[in-house]
Amino acid sequence: MMLHRPTTDSLRARSAAQAAQVAAPAPASKHAPRGRAKRTLRSLLTPAQMNAAILRESARVDRKSGAALVLVLLRFTGRCTAPSAMRLAKTVLDRLRVTDDAGWFDAQHVGVLLPETAPAGAWRFAQQVCDRVAKRGGVRPHLTMYSYGGDPVSEADETPKVTRQTDEMVPEAKAG
Predict the structure, then answer these.
(1) Which of 26, 84, 128, 152 is deepest in the core (most CB within 10 A)?
(2) Residues 100 and 112: beta-carbon distance below 8 Å
């Protein structure tokens, strides 16, 4: 058997082809939006990171008049299985905008931080997530929403107000 020894020209051609492969951009996935990487379960914030994001965004609301911040907490009532929690987290990640943050608020709640979002839009987002999870064979998650700021603050009371809304307060939100 005879071994072929590469020539200088063949080595140059091979390295040029390899360089072209490295320089060529990877084809865009039809599922991931252009210009940003698809979020995965590993991209969920830890409870400490989620708390830092809440503090950061609430400070921004305090500095900017008329800004709004909504925190949506999703959890399962009763016993939650790992597949159900992962289905909920994946559904949330699929629906996020670039400016939104999602992570574990605590051991039982997936939190979604929606800056610059009106409460009605955040409620609609949360309902769509709950509907999608229930449609995919899971139990419908329980929903609690906190909104901060959003309305111009009067000079007499300079503190933005926190309002709370749950799906128990809205009868049509229950699955049935």
Answers:
(1) 84
(2) yes
Instruction: Specify the DSSP class assigned to residue 44.
Output: S
- Domains of the chain listed by start with CATH number: 41-173 (3.30.70.270)
Q: What is the DSSP string of 45-95?
A: BPHHHHHHHHHHHHHHHHHSTT-EEEEEEEE-SS---HHHHHHHHHHHHHH
Q: Write out 99-141 in H/E/C secondary structure.
A: CCEEEECCCCCEEEEEECCCHHHHHHHHHHHHHHHHHCCCCCC
Closest by CA position to 80, among listed 127, 136, 138, 133: 138
Q: pLDDT tens digit string along 49-62?
A: 999 999 999 999 88
User: Which of 143, 27, 123 lies closest to 75, judged by CA?
Assistant: 143
76 C-beta neighbours (distance < 10 Å), count: 19
What pLDDT was estimated at residue 102? 94
Q: What percent of the chain has pLDDT over 70?
A: 66
pTM of the model: 0.66
C-beta of residue 142 within 8 angstroms of C-beta of residue 77: yes
Rg (CA), the chain: 24
